[in-house]
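Project outcomes to date are best conveyed with an example. Our students and postdoctoral researchers have been running inverse folding experiments weekly, and each run begins with a structure described purely in tokens. The record below, which covers 141 residues, was selected by the lab manager from last quarter's runs and is presented without edits.
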């Protein structure tokens, strides 16, 4: 009886290893670089820039606030469709007090497995227009 139990347990263990090894691997995350710039007129007292990346369901997968300097961000995302939402919170007198969100921009993009991309977003404050460009990035750069 113990020999039959041992053979049965061995067969079950081999079956479990086979199922686990053939299960679909999760999609590999892909590098996404985002470069955002304000152009045209600027806020006199400065502003904070907010980024939010939403997935197809509208859920935020990343939130970030820039308080100064370059507004660039690199992250890794699973393959799929995304929307980058950006907006400014102008400083009111100083940046301890912020005005309501302004200069809102939405830019959709798609991430494919193994194809790093760069999303360049420009918001022109003088015209109130938002533009975006998406370029593929060489895997080693």
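After processing, the design step wrote out the following sequence:
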């Amino acid at each position: 009886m113990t020999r039959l139990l041992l053979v049965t347990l061995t067969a079950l263990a081999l079956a479990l290893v086979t199922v686990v090894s053939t299960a679909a691997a999760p999609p590999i995350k892909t590098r996404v670089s985002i470069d955002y710039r304000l152009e045209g007129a600027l806020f006199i007292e400065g502003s904070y820039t907010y980024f939010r990346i939403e997935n197809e369901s509208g859920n935020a997968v990343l939130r970030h606030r820039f308080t100064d300097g370059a507004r660039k961000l690199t992250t890794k995302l699973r393959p799929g469709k995304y929307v980058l939402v950006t907006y400014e919170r102008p400083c009111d007198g100083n940046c301890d007090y912020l005005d309501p969100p302004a200069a809102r921009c939405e830019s959709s993009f798609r991430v494919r497995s193994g194809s790093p991309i760069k999303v360049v977003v420009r918001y022109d404050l003088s015209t109130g227009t938002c533009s975006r460009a998406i370029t593929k990035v060489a895997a080693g750069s």
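The mean pLDDT is 83. The helical segments are 2-22. The training component of this project remains on track.
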